[in-house]
Amino acid sequence: MPDTNGILIEVYITHNSKYGTGDKESISPALKSVTAETVSKELSPYSESGPIDTITSTIGCGNRKIISTLKTGTMGKLLYDMSIKIAKEYFNKK
After folding, report:
1. Which is it for strands 46-47 and 31-34: parallel, antiparallel or unpaired?
2. Is residue 21 part of a domain?
3. Whose CA is closest to 64, among 18, 23, 17, 29?
4. What are the residues facing 46 on neighbouring strands?
5. What is the predicted pLDDT for the residue at 42?
6. For position 45, what pLDDT does the model report?
7. pTM to 2 decimals?
8. Domain assignment of residue 59, yes or no
């Protein structure tokens, strides 16, 4: 049981830095990226609802999607079985 007569000291550290090219960002848990370019506020895009903070490319999203887990698993199993068969034939000949 902890001592209830002690002193609790909490320290909060903050660090403010400018966001720039090469910094990592995460828009959602599945979509992480690295900043390619930053622009000044005067040149930043603007819409009717207000300023736009981030523009992401949809190129990276499609590369992360698995069309069918059944197809992916089947192809993985086929490739594994073929590699075992080829290895057995290769090493048995020597």
Report:
1. unpaired
2. no
3. 29
4. 51
5. 80
6. 78
7. 0.37
8. yes
Average pLDDT in the 45-72 region?
70
Mean confidence (pLDDT) of the chain: 77
Q: What is the pLDDT of residue 79?
A: 87
pLDDT above 60: residue 94: no
CB of 20 closer than 8 Å to CB of 12: no
43: domain range?
Answer: 28-93
CB–CB of 74/80 below 8 Å? no
Query: Quick check: is 23 in a domain?
Result: no
In angstroms, how far is the first alpha carbon of the chain from the final one?
68
Report the number of distinct structural domains present in the chain.
1
How many other C-beta atoms lie within 10 A of the C-beta of residue 87? 10
Write out the DSSP string of 11-50: ----------TT-EEEEETTEEEE------GGGS-EETTE
Q: Tell me if 50 is assigned to some domain.
A: yes
